[in-house]
Specification:
Length: 72
């Protein structure tokens, strides 16, 4: 994919996730799923995990693009 297409696709998929999460009723929002390493997570915890995971990928891309080392 070209960079512009990739950015557009990511934005579209993030919007779908946001809209889905926003549309959940109280009972649906209390549902959980099991992560193989972190165990049982609520939808809120999954969303937080998703954002942290995505941030990790963005930092990696930034490092590769700019040939820099970032220590966290």
């Amino acid at each position: 994919m070209k960079t512009e297409e990739l950015i557009s696709s990511i934005a579209f998929e993030r919007r779908k996730i946001f809209e889905l999460a926003k549309s959940l009723n109280e009972n649906e929002s209390k549902r959980t799923g099991v992560h193989p390493k972190f165990g049982k997570l609520s939808i809120k915890e999954w969303m937080e995990f998703f954002l942290l995971h995505e941030a990790h990928h963005l930092i990696t891309i930034f490092k590769l693009k700019n040939d820099v080392e970032i220590r966290l």
